[in-house]
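Field guide to reading this record: the first block holds the primary sequence, the second block holds the structure written as discrete tokens, and the final block holds curator observations. Each block starts with its own label. This record concerns Dynein heavy chain C-terminal domain-containing protein, catalogued under organism Mantoniella antarctica.

BLOCK 1 — SEQUENCE
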Amino acid sequence: MFLEEQDQIPWAALVYVTGQINYGGRVTDDLDRRCLMSILKKYYVPDILDDGYTFTPSGTYYAPPEGDLQSYRDYIDDLPLVEAPEVFGMHPNANITFQMQETKKMMDTVLSIQPRATSTEGGKSPDDLVAALAAELAASIAPTLSFDEAVEGLFDRTASGQLKSLSVVLSQEIERFNRLTKVVNASLKELQKAIKGIVVMSFDLEQMYTNFLNNQVPGIWERAAYPSLKPLGGWMEDYHKRIAFMRNWLQHGNPKTYWLPGFFFPQGFMTGVLQTHARKYAQPIDSLNFTFEVLEGKEVAEDVAEAVADGVLIDGLFVDNARWNREERFLDESEPGVMCSNLPVVHFVPIQHYNPPPLLAPADPKEYQCPLYKTSVRAGLLSTTGQSTNFVLTVGLPIRPGTTSDFWVLQGVALLCALND
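BLOCK 2 — STRUCTURE
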């Protein structure tokens, strides 16, 4: 219909009908729809009519020239049996990520079906190992956070009788961490009692026992905790680091930089920052949006000498499937074999009447709206905002000259609050 009724091929209409209606109507997430549209733009372009146009940089995949049936069969037979990442616009590192994920699935399956070993001569039994680990972890748990530790003035009210927005965020985070700490402490004590036969080994404790043997985070902890993909050892280290960050904030006041991965609910912190700016300048909060600046020479929090007047400094973020080019100060392709890299300290600046480019806007040659997620799963429950609970916000980052935002969408570039190890 589109091809016969018009003198020229309506490429824009074809992309819209296919991406936004036929398929896009079934995609509810704007970031997923953006990915779909970026893929279609590789195929729904006038250049595809040229014999020299290829779908991949290597030239392996292209629309074969007009010919007989056998020529098309020969072309298909010559295609690789296993598709390379370039078919999907991805970096070669995607192969490594895929293989690591497949290996993890296989190892998880093996661990789930292995029988419980008994102690060998001179060795420790599983009960001894789990009991010792539970006792060690219980001894390392810090006391719950108490508002009595708060530095003077942190929870003072303003002249209008309101609590400071970031102090409210801190109090909510303290409540969440204290709830988690109580669950961790109680379960560790119950597990030690169950191993000794003092209490009944419940289903949750049985699962916790198995998780400890396999260096996995117990499900009873995961239900009370923040999203995390780390093994037990990494999870405990991260847990202690989060508690230490909150305690330092509580005892010494607002930090110069905020470690965003340390929050239970970073979306709430972002709202608190906007609310602080709105109250300071008497501006409507719904007229504010963040702009972003990656600071030069500020790799970690210790490199920052003083806090900023407006907005906040954020540290601890990671770039997944790309890297930050520190010399040229733009987003660049990953080094071979390096899946994730550190992002320097970022200044989040609230600006009034600034509207970031829509996710479904035409390809941008200067900036990529990079999604920030809590974990590398990049998925979560659908919240009341229409966004995944794992999604925080999009961060506008400058990109390498000669590329467009579509290139980075297909590369699967995102920012992460936490890695898997």
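BLOCK 3 — OBSERVATIONS
The longest helix spans residues 165-196.
The longest strand covers residues 391-398.
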